[in-house]
Amino acid sequence: MKQYLLLFTTMTCMSLLLVGCSQSALALGSEGHSKPVIATKEKKETEEVALDRRPMVMVNGELYLDTGRESDIEGRCGVMDGEITSTVDTSKIPIQDNQSNFGDGYGYQYVDENSIDLYMNGKWIRFEKETTDTWGIQLTASKVTSSGLTLVCNQSGAQPTGNLQTGSPYWLEVQINNEWVPVEMLPSEYERGWTQEAWIIPMNNSIEWVVNWTELYGNLPAGKYRIGKEIMDFRGTGDYDTNTYYANFEV
């Protein structure tokens, strides 16, 4: 009887030990790997970076953009037509007259209806309205005197639909109070006419025309002028388009 009692007691103790070990194992497991591991991502703060815009100015309600090139005007008067008096951040667009996004204190002069020159760091820099010329034409004046000049026509890129050409007609305008006014022609007893030849403008090249206006306008007094010419995109008889181009100069 004692043997059975001893055996029963021994088996009971072993059972209790096994149960205790199992509970300990569960406890370790619950503290270790039974809980899911939650991966946390570090939140990255993003900041919007304001990018610098192209240098530009607002003058008389028009926006002019920096072309990155110096003015082609040779010889000019020292009187400014205006001055940039206020500025905004380089990431913004000017919205007030005589305002830029790169600084103030710069004098400027009008060139034509599409461009102005700003005097910056001892140089005249050309600013232009953002326009699209599908013919790639640019007129400039050189060798200017009171009686004439050499008109240089540059053609680069673009996509005219026909042959670019012009003729002998031209006209002169003078700037008065920031407005372009036709220069008055000399009186004549005879009706004036122009020759009818067509001058071809070569693609991706330049051509020069010598102009002497003494018979039409005489010798010009000092001032700001521009010469205008009509250029044609000619596809065939009766099938063409025309655009007007100008070159500015000073006497």
| Number of β-strand runs | 17
CATH architecture verdict of the largest domain: Sandwich
Q: What's the pLDDT, averaged over the residues?
A: 80
Report the top-level CATH class of the largest domain: Mainly Beta
Structural class comes to mainly beta
Give the overall shape, derived from the CA principal axes. Answer: globular
Tell me the Rg in angstroms: 41 Å
SSE pattern, N- to C-terminal = HEEEEEEEEEEEEEEEHEE
The span between the termini is 140 Å
Number of discrete domains: 2
Report the portion of residues in β strands.
Answer: 35-45%
Tell me what you see in this structure:
The protein is mainly beta and 251 residues long. It folds into two domains: 56-128, no CATH class; 137-250, Immunoglobulin-like, CATH 2.60.40. 14% of the residues lie in helices and 40% in strands. The strands form three sheets. It has an eight-stranded mixed β-sheet with strand order 3-6-7-8-2-1-5-4, with no helix packed on it. Strands 11, 12, 13, 14, 16 and 17 form a six-stranded antiparallel β-sheet that branches. Strands 9-10-15 form a three-stranded antiparallel β-sheet, with no helix packed on it. The longest helix has 31 residues, at 2-32. 18% of the residues are buried. Pfam families: Big_14. Keywords: Signal. Residues 1-27 form the signal peptide.
